[in-house]
Specification:
- The structure holds two protein chains of two kinds.
- Chain A is about 40% helix and about 20% strand.
- By secondary structure, chain A is α+β, with helices and mostly antiparallel strands.
- In chain A, strands 1, 4, 5, 6, 7, 8, 9 and 10 form an eight-stranded mixed sheet that branches.
- The longest helix of chain A has about 40 residues.
- Chain B is of the alpha+beta class.
- In chain B, a hairpin with a 7-residue loop joins strand 33 and strand 34.
- The longest helix of chain B has 19 residues.
- Classes of the chains: A alpha+beta, B alpha+beta.
- The interface between A and B is large, with 95 and 101 residues.
Chain lengths: ~375, ~800
């Protein structure tokens, strides 16, 4: 028995001192393996007397179990130590920079973003978004909008023309043009849709002047409401609500002034009150008035052009510069840069593709 | 339109302040653009030079002792040649801002002599360009008083923007009428007596062009003495930016602005024979009052005499018969001209004058004769002389428009509640004739309002005078339901294409719709129909046939600024012809340098490679997917437009008829012609070619069938001719068993000498999905054999051993 005690002590010492899993395995083979010291002792049981066996049997089994348990727990310790050791070698510099996600690097142009903002606002007021072609006929751009031939108002539009076409069967030489405003879409819509009509019309417009504050191509937002009751009071409300929502301010003071456009009567220009004393424009305060849009009740002749009886139907329209309100809201100083495709400008003033303007999530960050 | 406050008060009796007047003008539609209160002139004082001694140390300078009226003479060093003892002029003390030279004076020391101010020249006070000497006032000028008061420089100048519909406000009297209606002051009527003609006009006038000239008034005044006009008239003309010339000429300018009635004066002695209003002869010579020689077109009308054209009727007088200081006998003209012809002539000839401006907008026909009398009276008043009887040729048209106006119309269009009495009062105060008959009144439009045609115009009159600010903002009624989808297919696609491309790291650009002809030609444009008749520059002469040239040039501009790795896209229109129906909706993009999907340039984790055709293809397909297309059914073919690299570009189509787009690297000649360099690739997708999605009865998606059995993957490697397209191999592999094969992907392409020349190895991974029981080895072998056979048959390749 004392031999067994000695054996157990030797084996347990060997287990405790096994430096790694391989050494431990050697101890296991030397003790519990087929030819291991314990296994050899077990084999002697058969030759023992029953009395001897009754003593040695349980003693050997207990030795086998305690050695087995000791190996298992030593193994766990060694495994943990080995993992700890490996982890120490697996450390990397997590301060190394990673590449930016392409969806964070890409940009939506401010014009597109503002058009999406406008779309969000007007869809809430029951408007649809309508569009029309950049290339227009004289009829849609002028005649149908009550610009008489030769009227000084036509000249104020600085129109880009295409070359005259061959005379048609009536001897009329047609000359198409680039639309000078989004208003032709008023007529196109009336031709295709019965009132009530509520549409917002964003789009490109063209005029042949170019200076620091004018570009030959720019963007306009037209609004059109036609039903049997829409009046200037409603127009005021729509524009006030739009400006508050778009500029994301609680209050906005607007001043309506009588003005003149051939396609509206009465016609008005609208100023908004602002403070321009600092670097940025603040709305709803200050004592500057800044002109931002033109509007009015649809001229009876325009309703007639659209096939509507002006004594039955009525409505209003407005036009506002998208580039301009984008500049006012987001502070770009120079209109020309909108069309220069300078990557630095686009990255700075552009918008993340995932920042989709909605009313429920806010128009802007 | 400019005028001064005192000028307005000649026509309007009012105690209103300048601010009140300015506010009122803007609110009634006569928008005030600028008010010049002329504060800058206030510090200048009339002063007398008591003594003028030579400067001890400078030949051309004098040392003046100046009396500014307070008995304390001030020392001033002055270089003006006319500075002398006794001169009375305008003095500015130290601290005064002198507008003409943009300088604030300080006490100076000029060559050892202190100077405490200056005596000013006319240029220094912005009175004229005269800088030859200091202002030299008459001996009776009151020393010590304000020079601004004396010289009429205290009169605020108001500039208003007049919209094209308001020719009646192009005279100060008309502006006064509007203000009176708004409640600012009372109009002082201009009394005009017909001058008593003492003889018949010796010069007759005939109208050969009644379509252009309905009526013409002419009076001869003999024995006038021309010279400078009076100080008050000169001051007002200068204040509004006109140069006084002589009394006769100044009268015509003054009446133009005072009463909105343009006039002309001929030197009667220079008129040969009689006058005739006629069409010009083609190429007829005319020397204008602007000193320029014109060659007239036959579409133009003139007033001629035996000498030829004496006046470009309604636009500008002629030099030959113009009035000078020597003029003794004068012909005063007051006529009516067709506005359209005036506008066309002025536009064609590029001549802008105050007369053209008014005639093309429409002057008051009823005032033609009174205007003639008023001018004649002024001529006699300022220059003396004796008038002939006035002769009116033709017939003054009397437009007698009467509008049936339901007074409820104002509320219908504006929402304003204006009482019938107030509405009528407003219309009458603006000169409209009103006959009352219940709720609908008859309104006669005054002769000076050519812009008023119908009910809506009258509503505007009532609204602007009653007060546009009284209109209450009123919510637009709700449509009573949740908005339906508001974007069209095209709008949704463009929006998705933009957000999709930006999510791939690209920057959205907006470039001009017009490009240079040479560039347009490179991309299939440059045809005559796409050319603008009046481009702003040769770089912007042709409507673009493609988004690519603008983007490529933009990429190069960025590269030139040091941003060589740039990815740009644009979603906009291209043009096939000059009709509204032929513009296309496109998405195009360009990548330059190493601007790939992961970013650009070097990085510790791996550098981005040069952009290439495959990247462009991925961009192109991403647009189609963003627009909802299933791209697995599309064909990629090599037949691409000439601007692409023929071996590194592709066309995306749905069958041979529907071309959805192109992508690739560019032809070296394209790059050279655009002067664009570097690795660059691009794509263009025709959004309008994408078929509209089919309307579905339900939004339910097909049931998802998930197999509990594991898919099996097998790799194959084939050696084929380099010219064989991988797409063919994939089709063959996929076609081996459409039920079991769920995916085939390419995981390696290898070319090398070991394969032999013109050969490549393509390695694919095939995924097999068992349906209801696991595959047996025999089943897998059977499918594999079929894959190999299919691929070998269609590509001529062999399984790599």
């Amino acid at each position: 028995m004392s031999d067994l005690k000695q054996l157990e002590a030797d084996i347990l010492t060997a287990i405790e001192t096994a430096a790694d899993e391989a050494a431990l395995e050697t101890v296991r083979i030397e003790s519990l393996g087929k030819k291991g010291s314990i296994s050899l002792q077990m084999k002697t049981l058969g030759k023992m007397t029953p009395e001897e066996r009754q003593v040695m049997g349980p003693a050997l089994n207990s030795l086998k179990n305690s050695v087995g348990d000791a190996i298992a727990s030593r193994k766990e310790v060694l495994k943990r130590a080995a993992i700890e050791e490996r982890l120490k070698t697996e450390k990397v510099d997590i301060t190394l920079p990673v590449r930016q996600s392409p969806s964070e690097a890409g940009r939506i142009h401010p014009i597109s973003q503002v058009i999406d903002e406008i779309t969000a606002i007007f869809s809430d007021m029951g408007f649809a978004i309508a569009e029309g072609p950049d290339v227009e006929t004289d009829y849609y751009n002028f005649t149908a909008l009550n610009f008489p031939e030769g009227h000084p108002a036509r000249e104020m539009h600085d129109t880009f023309f295409f070359n005259e076409k061959e005379a048609d069967e009536n001897g009329v030489k047609v000359r198409n043009l680039l639309r000078t405003h989004t208003s032709p879409v008023q007529i196109r819509t009336m031709e295709n849709q019965e009132p009530p009509i509520r549409i917002a019309i964003p789009g490109k417009t063209y005029r042949c002047d170019s200076d620091p504050t004018h570009t030959p191509m720019f963007h306009q937002l037209e609004g059109l409401v036609i039903d049997k009751a829409a009046n200037i009071g409603n127009l005021k409300w729509v524009l006030e609500e739009f400006c508050k929502a778009f500029f994301e301010v609680d209050n906005i003071n607007m001043r309506f002034r009588p003005s003149f456009f051939p396609f509206t009567e009465p016609s008005m220009e609208v100023d908004i009150q602002c403070d321009r004393s600092g670097n940025e424009v603040k709305f709803g305060e200050g004592d500057d008035w800044m002109e931002i849009l033109g509007c009015g009740m649809l001229h009876p002749n325009v309703l007639r052009s659209g096939g509507l009886d002006p004594d039955v139907y009525q409505g209003f329209a407005w036009g506002i510069g998208i580039d301009r309100i984008a500049m006012l809201k987001y502070g770009m100083p120079d209109l020309r840069a909108f069309f220069d495709a300078d990557a630095r400008w686009l990255s700075h003033y552009g918008f993340r593709p995932l920042d989709v303007p909605t009313l429920f999530g806010g128009l802007s960050r | 339109m400019k005028f001064t406050l005192s000028w307005l008060k000649d026509h309007l009796d009012t105690d209103a302040s300048l601010d009140q007047i300015v506010e009122a003008l803007t609110m009634i539609g006569l928008e005030v653009e600028e008010v010049d209160t002329r504060e800058a002139f206030k510090p200048f004082t009339i002063a007398k030079v008591l003594s003028a001694e030579k400067h001890p140390d400078a030949d051309k300078l004098k040392v003046l002792s100046v009396d500014v009226g307070d008995g304390k003479p001030i020392q001033v060093v002055c270089g003006a040649p006319n500075a002398r003892e006794g001169l009375i002029g305008a003095f500015a003390g130290a601290g005064t801002y002198v507008p003409g030279i943009d300088v604030t004076l300080s006490v100076g020391n000029i060559r050892g002599v202190e100077s405490f101010g200056m005596m000013c020249s006319e240029r220094e006070l912005e009175l004229s360009e005269d800088h030859d000497g200091i202002i030299d006032l008459p001996a009776d000028a009151p020393v010590g008083t304000s020079f601004a008061d004396y010289a009429g420089l205290n009169d605020p100048i108001i500039e208003i923007g007049i919209t094209p519909n308001r020719p009646d406000a192009l005279g100060v009297a008309g502006i006064a009428r509007d203000l009176e209606a708004y409640g600012i002051g009372t109009v002082k009527p201009v009394a005009i007596a017909e001058p008593k003609g003492t003889f018949d006009n010796p010069i007759s006038l005939t109208i050969e062009a009644p379509e252009f000239c309905p009526a013409f008034g002419l009076t001869y005044v003999k024995g006038v003495k021309n010279g400078p006009s009076p100080k008050w008239m000169q001051q007002r003309l200068k204040a509004i930016g006109l140069r006084p010339i002589s009394a006769l000429v100044d009268i015509t300018n003054y009446v133009t602005f005072d009463l909105g009635r343009p006039l002309h004066v001929f030197d009667a002695d220079k008129v040969m024979g009689n006058l005739v209003v006629r069409g010009a002869k083609d190429g007829e010579a005319f020397k204008g009052l602007d000193g320029k020689d014109y060659k007239l077109a036959s579409s133009v009308y003139v007033i001629g005499d035996d000498n030829g054209a004496e006046s470009l009727a309604g636009i500008m007088g002629g030099e030959t018969s113009g009035c000078t200081d020597e003029t003794v006998n004068v012909l005063v003209e007051s006529a009516l001209w067709d506005p359209m012809i005036i506008a066309r002539t002025g536009r064609d000839m590029g001549i802008n004058t105050d007369a053209r401006y008014r005639f093309e907008r429409g002057v008051d026909p009823a005032f033609m004769e009174a205007g003639l009398h008023h001018a004649t009276n002024l001529v006699m008043e300022l220059c003396g002389g004796e008038p002939s009887t006035s002769v009116i040729t033709g017939k003054v048209p009397k437009p007698e428009l009467v509008i049936d106006f339901p007074l409820s119309e104002t509320k219908r269009l504006t929402g304003l509640e204006v009482s019938n009495e107030r509405s009528i009062e407003i219309l009458q105060s603006l000169g409209f004739g009103v006959s009352v008959a219940g709720d609908t009144i008859q309104v006669a439009v005054p002769s000076w309002r050519p812009d008023v045609f119908g009910k809506a115009d009258l509503v505007e009159e009532i609204m602007r005078i009653y007060g546009i600010d009284k209109i209450q903002s009123t919510p637009l009624p709700s449509i009573g339901a949740i908005s339906k989808r508001i974007l069209t297919n095209d709008q949704t696609r463009r929006r998705n294409a933009k957000r999709g491309l930006a999510s791939r790291g690209m920057l959205e650009a907006i470039t001009w719709s017009f490009i240079a002809e040479d560039h347009a030609k490179l991309f299939g444009g440059g045809v005559p129909e796409l050319k603008l008749a009046n481009p702003i520059s040769t770089d912007m002469s042709d409507m673009r046939p493609s988004l690519l040239p603008g983007l490529m040039l933009a990429a190069q501009r960025n590269a030139d600024k040091g941003v060589g790795d740039v990815a740009l896209f644009e979603v906009s229109h291209t043009f096939e012809s000059d009709t509204p129906e032929t513009q296309r909706s496109c998405a195009g993009g360009i990548r330059r340098g190493t601007a790939g999907l992961i970013g650009s340039g070097r990085d510790w984790a791996g550098a981005a490679g040069n952009v290439d055709v495959q990247l462009a293809k991925a961009d192109a397909l991403s647009v189609l997917e963003a627009c909802g297309m299933n791209i697995s059914n599309l064909q990629i073919v090599t037949d691409t437009p000439k601007w692409y690299h023929p071996g590194r570009s592709g066309r995306i189509q749905m069958g041979p008829k529907i071309v959805l787009g192109t992508f690739g690297e560019f032809h070296p000649m394209t790059l050279e012609a655009l002067d664009v360099s570097g690795p660059i690739c691009g794509f263009e997708i025709y959004l309008d070619a994408i078929p509209a999605p089919k309307a579905k009865a339900t939004k339910t998606k097909p049931a998802l069938v998930l197999s509990g059995l594991q898919a099996v993957k097998r790799d194959f490697s084939f050696v084929l001719d380099k010219s064989q397209e991988v797409a063919k191999l994939l089709r063959a592999a996929n076609g081996a068993d459409k039920k079991l094969i769920t995916n085939v992907s390419v995981f390696d392409i290898f070319e090398g000498p070991s394969l032999g020349e013109d050969k490549k190895s393509v390695a694919i991974e095939v995924t097999l999905q068992p349906k209801d029981k696991t595959f047996t080895d025999e089943e897998i072998e059977a499918v594999s054999a079929k894959i190999i056979a299919n691929v070998e048959k269609s590509t001529g390749g062999t399984l790599r051993g």
